[in-house]
Amino acid sequence: MSTHPEEMKIVQKKYISVISGGKKIVLNRDAVLYVLMVGRNAEIHLTDKQIYETRMSLSQLEEQLGEAFLEIHRGCIVATRAIHSITDKSTSATGRL
Predict the structure, then answer these.
(1) First to last CA, the chain
(2) β-pairing, 15-20 with 41-46?
(3) I need a surface site. Which of 27, 55, 82, 91 has the fewest CB within 10 A?
């Protein structure tokens, strides 16, 4: 089994780690619907309606979440699987964005 750097880049991590409420939290990347910047804090919204706040930057979270997320507005990234239409207004499959 080869471990070339190019092959390693293709594999996405299944989990991301963030600091929220002074604790290290490990989140399933597939559970993240969207991330919204509120001031200097990022709100990570999950499919089960939980919200985690972290001081991580949007670019740091984008790096962890990978290409399955799309920046739809300055300060907001969304899981592409949660987008069901694209118009001049943002909507998601759950209707929560």
Answers:
(1) 42
(2) unpaired
(3) 55
The residue length of the chain stands at 97
CA distance 15 to 64: 8
> With pLDDT > 90 as the criterion, what percentage of the chain qualifies?
64
Q: What is the pLDDT of residues 59-87, one digit of tens each?
A: 999 999 999 999 988 999 999 998 887 77
54, 46 Cβ separation under 8 angstroms? no
CA–CA separation, 51 and 61 (whole Å): 15
18 membership: H or E segment, kind and range: strand 15-20
DSSP 8-state secondary structure symbol assigned to residue 5? H
Residue 14, both tokens: 């299944």
Sequential DSSP letters for 29-95? GGGEEEEEEETTEEEEEETTS-EEEE---HHHHHHHH-TTEEEEETTEEEEGGG----SSS---TTS
